[in-house]
Specification:
Layout: H1 11-38, H2 43-51, H3 70-83, H4 85-104, H5 107-119, E1 124-127, E2 143-147, E3 150-161, E4 168-174, E5 184-190, E6 196-198, E7 212-223, E8 227-228, H6 234-270, E9 272-273, E10 276-277, H7 282-313, H8 321-347, H9 358-368, H10 375-387
Parallel strand pairs: 1-4
Antiparallel strand pairs: 2-3, 3-7, 4-5, 5-8, 6-7, 9-10
Helix pairs in contact: 1-2, 1-3, 3-4, 3-6, 4-5, 4-6, 6-7, 6-8, 6-9, 7-8, 8-9, 8-10
Length: 388
């Protein structure tokens, strides 16, 4: 045996993969087409994930969670996404919503809000974007004004994943309009707070089972201690959060692509033309080889980024975390779009119908190139890191 450490998930993480895959195949995949067709929340997936404590594995043990590391969390999201992309947004968005609290929240805030998430009693969404503040998130207009021992929030957040289903929301709002990005603060808002409402569900190309809605804040008064970190640090927290959670979008993209590749492999072995399986044709084999090769490259970069994310969460300064998280998100999502498109091509006319899952996977893959920072923005971020 070599003393050189294996550059791979641990035996425990691979066992976790097998467990999640078995669960996803049995409890999530059978409902994926129906969830997509009816654009309904995948309650069966939530129930199965909560029952097996896989809905928010990243929450530390001290707050009642499983305390899984970032790579284990990637594995969970990847395997759920292989069966149903909409369902994978349950563990992914629970992480997105809670990382700001983990990074910057007071101990009281962590105890109050992370424990219910760990128990599966609540989900946690992230509210940064607005209608006129997408890539330019610092251009947000939502305001939070201090009033005695409370903050009063007004505004509307756009494109909020799992809005209306989640109980808690990390909301970014302007507290000092004269300070630009340094005048933005972060808050925990509860679904039950008076003045909180939701817009209609967006009618989307993919991930139809995960509701995307506006979060509307009208004179929402919350206790002053629900601010996450110091006043004016919200945008810094938002950017730091995305350094960690872009990796979960890469994981989702990997899972979608793997699901498409697996289905295409099974199909080409069975489908016969000119008297033999189409898998015997070199043109098909080259497509499969390219799909698998690109997918594995994206997977290795994503796992590499996840390890760096975990080290950063433990306080280590990781100089290239922003670079690797943006790189894995952009690469994995581009690969997912390519692989799912090729899977549709390999199935021919059947691939274009809803009788087979690859057209859904192709539609689901598209959003991974857009949310948590478009891939054009990721390339800007990567270039800035290179040119520092």
């Amino acid at each position: 045996m070599s003393d050189f450490p294996a550059y791979a998930p641990s035996e425990e993480q691979e066992l976790l993969r097998a467990t999640v895959r078995e669960l996803a195949d049995a409890k999530i995949a059978p409902f994926a087409a129906e969830v997509d067709e009816d654009a309904r929340f995948p309650q069966e997936a939530l129930d199965a994930l909560v029952a097996n404590e896989l809905h928010a594995v990243h929450v530390p043990e001290v707050y009642g969670g499983a305390g899984a590391d970032a790579l284990a969390t990637v594995v969970v999201i990847e395997e759920v996404a292989r069966a149903c992309a909409s369902s994978s947004l349950i563990p992914a968005v629970n992480k997105l919503g809670t990382v700001p609290v983990l990074l910057s929240g007071s101990e009281e805030l962590k105890k109050k809000y992370l424990a219910p998430v760990a128990r599966g009693e609540a989900m946690f969404s992230y509210a940064l974007s607005e209608a006129d503040a997408g890539s330019d998130a610092a251009g947000m207009k939502t305001r939070a004004v201090r009033d005695g021992d409370a903050w009063v929030l007004n505004g509307a957040k756009m494109w909020i994943t799992n809005a209306g289903v989640s109980e808690y929301y990390t909301v970014m709002a302007v507290t000092d309009p004269s300070a630009g990005a340094r005048g933005i603060s972060a808050f925990v808002v509860e679904k039950s707070d008076p003045g909180v409402s939701f817009g209609p569900k967006e009618r989307k190309l993919g991930i139809k089972g995960s509701p995307t809605r506006q979060v509307i804040l009208e004179d929402v008064r919350i206790p002053a201690d629900r601010i996450i970190g110091a006043e004016g640090t919200g945008f810094k927290t938002a950017l730091a959060t995305l350094d960690h959670t872009r990796i979960t979008i890469a994981a989702q993209a990997l899972g979608i692509a793997q699901g498409a590749l697996d289905f295409a492999l099974g199909y080409v072995k069975e489908r016969r033309q000119f008297g033999k399986p189409i898998s015997d044709f070199q043109g098909v084999q080259f497509m499969l080889a390219d799909m698998a090769m690109r997918l594995e490259g994206a997977r290795q970069l994503t796992y590499h980024a996840a390890v760096k994310s975990e080290r950063a969460m433990h306080g280590e300064k990781i100089a290239d975390l922003t670079f690797v998280s943006s790189a894995c998100k952009a690469l994995a999502s581009d690969v997912a779009m390519d692989v799912t498109t090729d899977a549709v091509q390999l199935l021919g006319g059947y691939g274009y119908t809803r009788e087979f899952p690859v057209e859904r996977m192709m539609r689901d893959a598209k959003i991974t190139q857009i949310y948590e920072g478009t891939n054009q923005i990721q390339r800007m971020v990567i270039a800035r890191q290179l040119l520092k």
